[in-house]
Amino acid sequence: MATTSFENIDQYIAGFEPDVQERLKDIRKLVHDTISDAVESISYQMPAFKYKGKILSYFAAFKNHIGFYATPESNQAFKDELSEYKTTKGTIQLPYDKPIPMQLLRKIILYKAMSIENQKKK
């Protein structure tokens, strides 16, 4: 990918092969379908979504996978369901040779949104 500075998620997605673009678009749509008032941005040169002013999630495409980032707290909450995926403290690697676990990502997004709402109440 030649571009290293993106102004929006459309620009980011456009820099990838069509099959990767489709996966990225699917994740983007999932976030919006799950949290309709999620706000798009680019942060750390990755697509990011904010909810109530706080980061909801990020995603990024790599050579063999898409990284989905919804914070270490979210990964810990779903560690059993994430056991078949390579994870790090705050990352879930979604390999290109497997379907995207849309229902699991939806649960993670909802969990993170609830966590943000609970923080706002405090």
Descriptive report:
- This protein has a single domain, classed as Aspartate Aminotransferase, domain 1 (Alpha-Beta Complex).
- Helix content is 40%, strand content 24%.
- It has four helices and five strands.
- It has a five-stranded antiparallel β-sheet.
- Helix 2 (18-34) crosses helix 4.
- The protein is globular.
- The chain starts with 8 loop residues before the first helix and ends with a helix.
- The model has no long low-confidence stretch (mean pLDDT 94).
Q: Quick gist of this model?
A:
The chain has 122 residues and is an alpha+beta fold. The protein is built from four helices and five strands, in the order H-H-E-E-E-E-H-E-H. Strands 1-2-3-4-5 form a five-stranded antiparallel beta sheet.
Note the main attributes of this structure:
5-stranded antiparallel β-sheet; 5 strands; 24% strand; 122 residues; alpha+beta; 4 helices; 40% helix; globular; Aspartate Aminotransferase, domain 1
Topology record:
Layout lengths: L8 H6 L3 H17 L4 E5 L2 E6 L2 E8 L3 E5 L2 H6 L13 E5 L6 H20 L1
Antiparallel strand pairs: 1-2, 2-3, 3-4, 4-5
Round the mean pLDDT to the nearest integer and report it: 94
Radius of gyration: 14 Å
Distance between the termini: 42 Å
Name the CATH class. Answer: Alpha Beta
Number of helices: 4
CATH overall fold name? Aspartate Aminotransferase, domain 1
Shape: globular
Helix content: 40-55%
Q: What structural category arises from helix and sheet content? A: alpha+beta
| Strand ordering within the main sheet | 1-2-3-4-5
| H and E string | HHEEEEHEH
CATH architecture type: Alpha-Beta Complex
Strand content: 15-25%
Low-confidence blocks of residues: none
- Sketch the major β-sheet: 5 strands, antiparallel
Number of domains: 1
* Tally of strands: 5
